[in-house]
Amino acid sequence: MAKAGTQGYTPGLVDLATGQISREIFVNETIYQQELEQVFARAWLFVGHESQILKPGDFFVSGMGEESVLLCRDREGEIHVFLNSCRHRGMKVCRYDEGNTQVFTCPYHGWSYATDGKLVGVPFFKEAYHGTLDRSKWGLVEVAQLCRYKGTIWATWDASAPPFLEYLGDFTCYLDLSLDAWDGREGGTEVLGGIQKWLIPCNWKFPAENFSGDSYHNISHRSVDMVGIGPSGRGRRDMQERLMARRLQICFPERGHQTGVYVLPHDRPTAPAYRDSPVVSEYFRHCEEARRQRRGEWGRVTGSPGEIFPNTALHPRQPRTIAVWHPRGPHQTEVWRWYMVDTDAPPEVKDFLRQYYIRYSGPGGLTEQDDMENWNYAHAASRGTIARRYPYSYEQGMGYEVQDFTWEGLHLPGVVMDITEAKSSEHNLRNLYRRWAEFMEAKSWAALATWRRPARATRRNGQRIRG
Amino acid sequence: MSEVINLRLLEPGTKISLSDGSIAEVVSNPLDGVWVFARYLSSPSDAALVGTEEMIFAQDIVEILETP
User: What is the pTM of this model?
Assistant: First the structure.
């Protein structure tokens, strides 16, 4: 069913005033096609990690929206991201998941590309093209911008998008909770093992909103908590901090990123964790101590699930993972999950974490299975003609957010919702859809980068300006 | 015409003859089954090619002259 001209705020598909969002944005084919252009062709997207392509010639086939892309390191050691599609007839020039190569050769007619994207091999160049084809114009299509940040690699197709760190804004300190070594050193993480990939029959925004901070669905994981898959033999993870920390949801309205965090009291150490293994428990105890010393007050902050707009999910602590929700049509999502670990962690720590991670996450992970079941059936039950008439409710916590949040001497960037007593809020979820609607309506990055407007600069200097 | 050559088996040092009468030596093989990198040892049509390294397309390789 066509819904031309009805996306975004205008017709009430995303109605933040009432906290209602139409099911159409999850199931409508026309809206999905607009998303690919308005969101995925313009936003910064997570592509992979440097530890996956250490040597010249190493490559990893990743995805950006529906596009297959090649993440590779060329002969000179430079990192590139290319569209995985031959310029001649569009065939994938690489059909492997990862590897090392001198060239990417299209199996259809044989055009061949160097790892820096240059077209280097054209069959019958002298005979059929009479030596006149300008090979310099027919290299692989490269992303408009690429950014390496603490080992992670991000890219966008839009040359007018702001640089990645500006795109993140003050959210950077929350992304760091996933990328810094556990003892607080900058960077220092790597990908553990392979990437888990699987298909789920739901729209990509179901998992995206869940990881944005759906703290309401905890009941879904009760069975896993009862089984006790956690690293201390109880629950699904170590959660002792919940008894003493402030539990916060934090979002950045102008960016569309959001996360949860726990903030420990000023004088409280982090509770023991990973008690199933004395070696692992001691490793993290030592790291926590070092982190508090190195980071000072910020060391009181522990990460919780978050989302970098549009489709990169962060799970900073237990298990420590990064996921991408690749859109595969309005009714299907391909999930890719990277498992992260401190690069210099002892082997027994890495092995323990690997086993815990896959017990928790991925297609065989017990916690992720709970989530997928919900998303899959929710999507299926929202596709019908009648079902589409009824919006979802996102009304929790409306009006209770705090613009300038400080607790026991620690100021936290972002708009904060304290859910320590409230238990749950849909504050972060509304933020995801606010930004989504802005992307769907905005004609250019000039309209999306609202923080660049002069009035906003004044606001950063402390003078609140409305409108 | 000679038998179809399996390019993936061509190791560096293999001498090959090409459809234009040139002779070249395989320098490296990306194992894509389509191309090899080779250095020209002789070229009846273009003497300037001798000594240069080029990508050689599978269908331009006529025969294996010598294996290392």
Answer: 0.92
